[in-house]
Amino acid sequence: MFKIETLMVLIPGLPLLSAIITAALGKWLLRSRSHWPAVLAVGGACLLSVLLLFQVRREAAALHEAGDAQAAAHAVGYEKTYTVWTWAVVSRALPARATFGQQASETSHSADPPGTTVPEDSSTSADARSLEIGITLRADPLTAVMLVTVTLISLLVVIYSIGYMHDDVGYWRFFTYVSLFVFSMTMLVSASNFALLYVFWEAVGLCSYLLIGFWFTRPAAAAAGMKAFLVNRVGDFGFALGLFLLWTTYGTLNFHDTAAAPGILGQTLLADPSQYAGGWVATAICLLLLLGACGKSAQFPLHVWLPDAMEGPTPVSALIHAATMVTAGVYMVTRCTPLYLVSADAQQVVLLVGMITALLAAAIALTQTDLKRVLAYSTISQLGYMFIGLGVGTLPGIVAGMFHLFTHAFFKALLFLGAGSVMHAMGGVIDMRRFGGLRRRMPVTHWTFLIGALALAAVAPFAGFWSKDAIVAAISQRVQDDHHGASVALYQWVFWGSLFTAGLTAFYTFRAFFLTFYGEEQIPEEAGHHAHESPPVMTWPLIVLAAASVFVGWCFQRGQRFDHFLMQTPSLAFSSAQATLPAGEHGGHGNVAVVSTLVALIGIGLAAYLYLGDRWEVAWIARRLRWLYTISYRRFFIDPIYMALFVWPLRGLAAFSYWLDRQCIDRLVDWVGRVPLAIGASVRALQSGLLPFYAMAMVFGLLVLIGILVR
Amino acid sequence: MDELALLHGYQTVGAMLVGIGIVGFLARRNMIVMFLSLEMMLQGISVTLVSWSRFHNDWGGQVLTVFIITVAACEAAIALALVLMLFRRAGGLDVLFWQQLRESNVEPFIEHELPEPPAEPADRWPHLPPAGIEPQTEEEWHRSHV
Amino acid sequence: MNVNLILATTAVPLLAALAIWLLPGATGTADRRARWIALAGSVLALLLAVAATVRHDRLVALHDGDFSAVYGQGLRWLAADDSSGIDIRFSLGLDGLSLWLFDLTALLMITAVLVSWEAIRDRAAAFYALLMLLESGLFGVFMARDIVLFYIFFEFTLIPLFFLIGIWGHEKRQYAAVKFFLYTFAGSVLTFLGLLALVVWNYFHAGNGVLTFSIPDLQAGLAAQPVDMKVPLLNVDLGLLIFLALFAGFAIKVPLFPLHTWLPLAHVEAPTAGSVVLAGVLLKIGTYGFLRFSLPMLPEASAQCMPWILGLSVAGIVYGALVALAQGDIKRLIAYSSVSHLGFCMIGLFAFNRAAVEGGTLQMINHGLSTGGLFALVGMLYERYHTREIRQLGGLATRTPWLAAMMVVFALSSLGLPGLNGFAGEFLLLLGMFQRAWTAAPPEWEMLFKTLAILSVFGVVLGAWYLLWMVRRVFFGPLVEPEQHGQTIRDLSLREIAALAPLVVVMFWIGLFPNFFLARIAPQSDPIADRVAEVIERRLPQAEVSTATATRSLDTRIAIIRSAGQTVLGESQDVFLLENEARRDH
Lengths: 711, 146, 586
Known about the structure:
The structure holds three protein chains of three kinds.
Chain A: H1 4-30, H2 35-67, H3 71-76, E1 80-94, H4 100-104, E2 129-139, H5 141-164, H6 171-190, H7 194-212, H8 219-250, H9 267-271, H10 279-296, H11 305-308, H12 314-323, H13 328-335, H14 337-342, H15 344-365, H16 371-391, H17 395-425, H18 443-456, H19 463-481, H20 488-517, H21 536-557, H22 561-566, H23 570-577, H24 589-611, H25 616-624, H26 626-633, H27 638-682, H28 691-710
Antiparallel strand pairs in A: 1-2
Helix pairs in contact in A: 1-2, 1-6, 2-5, 2-6, 5-6, 5-12, 5-17, 5-21, 6-7, 7-8, 8-10, 10-13, 10-15, 12-17, 15-16, 15-20, 16-17, 16-19, 16-20, 17-18, 17-19, 17-21, 18-20, 18-21, 19-20, 19-21, 19-24, 20-24, 25-26
Chain B: H1 3-27, H2 31-56, H3 60-90, H4 139-145
Helix pairs in contact in B: 1-2, 2-3
Chain C: H1 3-22, H2 27-62, H3 67-71, E1 75-76, E2 86-87, E3 89-90, H4 96-116, H5 124-143, H6 147-156, H7 158-168, H8 173-206, E4 211-212, H9 215-224, E5 230-231, E6 236-237, H10 238-253, H11 262-269, H12 272-297, H13 299-325, H14 330-350, H15 354-385, H16 396-399, H17 401-414, H18 421-439, H19 446-475, H20 494-512, H21 514-544, H22 546-585
Parallel strand pairs in C: 2-4
Antiparallel strand pairs in C: 1-3, 5-6
Helix pairs in contact in C: 1-2, 1-5, 2-4, 2-5, 4-5, 4-12, 4-15, 4-20, 4-21, 5-6, 5-7, 5-12, 7-8, 8-9, 8-10, 8-11, 10-12, 10-13, 11-14, 12-14, 12-15, 13-14, 13-19, 13-21, 14-15, 14-18, 14-19, 15-17, 15-18, 15-20, 15-21, 17-19, 18-19, 18-20, 20-21, 21-22
């Protein structure tokens, strides 16, 4: 059996190795065999991740049993870290004066007179903190779950891509990028300090940039890649600010404790949560981190990049822009639970962002005609759901958010791969108006897509049902617990809003499903002789994912296995030990489940009524509610608004700055250069060429000099 | 005699020599006379140096004086050669013949109230006019050289 | 001693320059030979520099960080005799601040030679001779441990570059060369005054009667006896005046925000090799000057000027990025990005804590690598298409995939992508800046510092925007090419890859293992940061307690009187009287 440390290094290490091999040999040697390193490495990583999961589970359980004797050990969960190498050290970077205790209690400079009692040499005082950033990996339940999700989906997508990408000129390039992405993503979820998290936060952004712009000769793809990177940069701007604030507040960036300092999410602070900074600092940190999460997870103000990202190859959309990378924000917020629990305001902002995003994206998805875009907006909407779960502020909510992440990965990857299969067959056409009635031509895709759609619509036994239901239940629990609280109205609104969104989700999912697979058979001319079921290498991943979409929710929800395992994560374990937060007890679950299933069925029924067959009502609604339709179809005009609000003003400012530079600053410099010239010109007349005049001037000067000396 | 009085005497003589030299240099336009005035200033300074040297009991001043005399001799040789060259070129010793080193936008200095041109032919040897008498040059002739 | 090795490193390019210049031959053969000599010279210099670095590392560890033991005291050079007290030494050496800049120079010069290989045909021998001279001069700047020596090399670097721009540049080369020369020269004259003032101050206060120009001695002397006089008539601190004098030269060189206009011009007009060296190394002389002289020798004044310089740096970051966004010329875009990036370096230096100063020092190297590489790539593009207009190019990734890949790598490094070098420096210095703003800002500046810190992070976003925009327009999308002159466009040749590959390797090295570099910077940069930080700490209570200000000015006044008495009346009169008495006795 492998040691946990070995597993931790090997899981990201194998994809990295594959990326290097494919990059070095792909073009010359491997060519159409370029997928082998990626398949082997990601497969290996997947296997090792499962091993890691079991090992973590065993050790956590052992800790749990021992923990009955020691309550404290139980409360802080299980974690294991391993430092591969130290990236940067700045010894005594933070002098003793600014230790986090002072900042945490929000003392300003005036309340803390440093001048009176400055130590003799503050920099050598024992309290000084060093900045130590290591390439430190971690293993704990949360990481293990994420690793399994990421590597499993990646494996299936890589296998699928063998078929999907088979005659592309950039075959080797594709697998290089995908391997690089798997490496980055596994590192992201195993990172054990905020700096490393940030590093791979950006690294997955880079992979996303490269893969969206994979067909770089298409202007739309190149533009979408850039847009994704830039919008993510705006999010990262928030993340970076949050990270720097964490450093100035806590004097460390580590999650876990080290000999030098307690980590932000480490055992010491978790055991005594009152040490967490409160007040505006906490809120600011949480909101800034949330901004980062919004960028990566495509939440409301920064969601604009994800629909455009569909310009990338479809397996990439399935892997990065649906199942794994976009959930990094959810992962991070979950990881930072202790920080969010300190700031109720920030938590409500998370809730609101999630709610707005879920509703907005669902509303946009209603009218889109591009199959992948419908799925993209549904991804945004589902991510919004996850944020709702995280924003509820109770442990069941957070775990439900993570659970939804887990199940969503399977069925959304399934849907995207199904869409990819359709797109493959249709010769790259993805506009639902141009094809239809494909169910007989593509039976496997049809059935698996149906399962995915049912899971997405949260119909009873499928995966999405369990997790979405858990989120809704957590909100309703919160409404009950909080019934005299100040913000109960908010929770109530969110409860109804999320139910409504569930209905919308079911509707647009099945709208897309019916439009694609039912009705008159219609095949665009681009399809040519391709218009048949995809090869087995593409359908098998679909079948596996479909099976997972059926069973994964029920399996893990049974006996609340997922919850119990996840609660061994340090960040969450501490919260469960808090008396104020109810542990994972679901009350009134049944009613909510019935209601939400009903809502989903209504949505499906409506879609079936409108889109099975050619209904006149569709056109009628679109005509009568033209403005609503237009707003939805034009995606609430958010892109033009951003262009008008940010891009064009900045461009204008840039042009103005350049004008300023040329016409003012540089002119000023030239004028300064002319001053000596002007002085020279004014005294030019003195240069008369007359010797006696010069002599006279000399004598005069001499006299002045003598005069000064004599005086 | 008292050291200080001696110093005063020599200083006075030196100052007078320098003063006369300056006046001569400024007042005259004949290059040779100007050069002689220059030499006179040099001698005045030599006298001053020697007297200070004596007063301070430091031979440095006298050494410097010897040095000055030597340099002055070389200088005289070169300067007179140059003056000769200039005379050859311009046909006169007037220093105002040589104004070419003025700025391009400065008008040349032309003397308008020049006396009658001399009767002698152009190829003359340089001669020293009596002190206080303006050089006799012809306006057009002057113009042609400026 | 290691000094021989670094001296040899400096001598090699000098000898190469002499060889290129003096060896006889017809114009054609001499030109063809010149580039080989230059290449051999720069490669040999790099090897020697690496050897010197390795040896330096070992010796410093052996001598426990005592640099004078490693590099000796140097030769007496411009001292009239022992009694005059003037002590100018030909003293060379490296330390943490200069070590990596020294290596960077050696590395970039190979790139500079290789990118000129085909591009420079006219009077190539003279070109390479000047390039080699420039390399020697740059080595000298970073090695000098004596102010006079430093200044000589400092000014000397201008001369080869002046000719490189003025002769082999593009259309407006002469205007650019003259402007570059005059602008930087005007500032550095003031710098020299400032340096002399430091020397003189130290002479009057060290009390050992030695007019030393040695940088380590001055540093020690000024640490013991800081410049704390008020200039009588103007009623300003003398330290501040000296700081401003130094600032004039260094800030123009950096270039700091309103003083930057020579830079885009010079970069755009310079030949590729000139741009590479100018951006890569020459600008670093400014930041290096701050780090070497201003901060350690004038901590008080540095602390006083901190808000202003931070403000200008951040203005430069945002402004440079915005102007870069408005450019249609790739080379000018990168030139303005330099203004932006050097702003980051300056933030690092002037946030005055360990993380920031280390990060700022590292960022100098990073900027040299990534921007040097970008300029080299633009040169390669220009060689192929004879245009640098973004509008005229597009989709080149299909035509020249390697060139595109390299451009992407260098652009990503420049915009601070983690894993590449740019991130390591930026991260540390921004971390330090935040630490300064949030935990150790003077109260009256706190809001300003916080705003500046946030704005500087915003600059990172803008940086991504203009670089990616350029990459997208030029390399992605459908193919757009200007009218070609009949020749086929080839991808990067082996020579061009050889010019860039070392930079890429080092970029990854710094990005992945910055600690290797930081550990060698820290021993010198940490004390500097600590010392200024201490000064700021000391100033804090004085800013708060109003009575302290009164006491301080009284103290200062006493100090002025005392020092004035010593300098003007005391010593000079003493000397005079003593001399007279001695003579009488005679």
